[in-house]
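Students often ask what a holo structure prediction actually looks like on paper. The answer is less mysterious than it sounds. You provide the chain, you provide the ligand, and the output is a string of discrete structure tokens encoding the 3D arrangement of the protein together with NAI.
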Amino acid sequence: MKILFFSTKPYDKVFFDTHNQSYGFEIEYLDTHLGPHIVNVVDGHEAVCVFVNDKVNAEVISVLAAKGVRIIALRCAGFNNVDLEAARSHGIRVCRVPEYSPEAVAEHTVAMLLTLVRKTHKAYNRVREQNFSLNGLLGFNLYGKTIGVVGTGKIGSAFCRIMKGFGCRVIAYDLLPDVQLQSAGIEYLPLEAVLNAADVISLHCPLNPATHYLINDRTLAMMKPGVTLINTSRGGLINTAHAIDALKSRHLGNLAIDVYEQEEKLFFKDLSESIIEDDTIQRLMSFPNVLVTAHQAFFTNEALTKIAQVTLHNIDRLRQGEEPAQSNAILV
Ligand code: NAI
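The corresponding structure tokens follow.
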């Protein structure tokens, strides 16, 4: 079977080529995003493998179907960029990697939180210039603080457990509370109560129509003055313009984002010699209390190994007309 990969980076090839030795698929790697402009290149491929910023909408899916593609394999967990109804109506199977390393994302969330609250990013640069002054580096303890977690699935629950270990009070909101987390001391509250009470709020719910712009001027106003907000889930959860207003008014004390609503034009690319047209990200990066990483929370050796193994396993099982081992890997 021939598989056409989109949005490929050098590290994808390393992990997929290694694990493809057990399967022998004919893999062709493209570095471009999948979208209406490029979909015609899929001729002769029965499967496409896509990532978080590939645009797999109804228009793209109808061309994929017409050209004989039978499988869309996401090499990620989130699937907000795929029109599942369109895939279903064309009889295309869609699979993903539902759980590759929740700890990778949860630990990056903690890394961003600690960086912001102890200003280690500034300290790193400062001492390299032989400036050993502490002025401006005052932080705050996480011990004893209230951490609010929105979405306690695999990643959110890993983050909850880590923050419990820091000696924090952890409160959470989810449509489906997790009894194991409750017995571990995590308190579930309505969303508004979580936003009201938390010193730090971390988003771990998926992006869908119900969660789009979950964080907006109304919900930001419910948060404590000086709150720290972290988003390692999907950019569309935050109305970025409203977050910028809250930063300018000093209501939002710190913001850490690994995802950004316009990220597909920026992230995963070296734009160091380019003029960035996106004024919103430039404004965000100009704040001293904002930390941006470019969708790297998943990026560990363990996670990339699992992503390659599970993606190839999913495609192999679907090729044989069987279901993958993890039933929640199948979306359609
Ligand atoms: P999951 O499916 O295990 O958990 C999501 C949780 O959110 C579930 O418990 C669900 O009940 C809850 N939820 C759904 N709608 C909600 C709502 N309206 N309000 C509150 N909670 C709601 O997903 P997992 O694996 O924990 O991943 C979470 C998200 O993290 C993914 O959807 C993906 O967008 C993002 N992600 C980001 C990565 C990165 O590198 N930055 C890597 C992997 C995932």
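The chain has a mean pLDDT of 97.
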